[in-house]
Amino acid sequence: MTTTSATSPINQAGTTSNTTATNTTSAGRTALAQNFNMFLTLLTTQMKNQDPTAPMDSTQFMSQLVQMTGVEQQLAANDLLKQLVTNTGANVSNAVDLIGKQVRAASTDANLSGGQAKWTYSLPADATDVKIEVLDSNGVSVRTIAGSGDDMKAGDHPFTWDGKDMLGSTMPDGKYSLRITAVDGGGSKIDATTYVEGPVTAIELLNGQSMITINGGKVPVSQVIAVSQPGATDTANTNNTNTAG
Q1: Paired strand residues for 175
Q2: DSSP annotation string for 135-175
Q3: Which CATH architecture has domain 102-242?
Q4: I want to staple 202 with a disulfide (CB 3.0 to 4.6 A). Which of 26, 51, 185, 213 is the partner?
Q5: What would the pLDDT profile of 14-62 be if each residue is shown by its tens digit?
Q6: Ranges of each domain in the chain
């Protein structure tokens, strides 16, 4: 049985050429498939023509079959690993470009720090009733505020929570989420969208997903919907701190 090995050439910069490596891997897999088919053909032919009084030892054939299967699985694993490394590197590289920039990300989660947690909620139409709820990490409502006036008009509405619960006690720092319940004049529900906005201060890879840090909270890069340069005019940066019970 012929053993085929593939070596990827190195370019002048000292890095492996991805295109050449891919072609080499494909060529190696093609050669392996040909060898595997040839092996099966030889095995079948020899078994048909073996001497009944002195049958061949099947252990050697089984050993070779296992080896070839193992090589095929290794090639497949190498392909998956290469794809994972490529995708991961690209995601991290793209996210690094966001550091220091002002971004808006679709998320109901925000980080409470220094007595503040900031969100922006958007209404697609005017509402006649809006309920704003801050939920802890267990999904329990710790603060409920009734919207009024401009808070119920269509458009974006910045919201800053002062970190206090319904009894006026200060809640511990950490992740909290915002839930908006809005209805129109006919009593129909209005679907609000919640965002977090701010400068990106860090990036990390968490469980294979690129996460950026905004106002101390972590958000997947995939949820970013807008990016602007620092200092750009953004009405969402206006802080409306609600203190009503």
Answers
A1: 111
A2: E-TTS-EEEEEE--GGGGSSEEEEEEE-SB-TTSPBPPSEE
A3: Sandwich (2.60)
A4: 213
A5: 444 444 445 555 555 566 556 666 667 766 777 677 666 666 666 666 6
A6: 18-96, 102-242
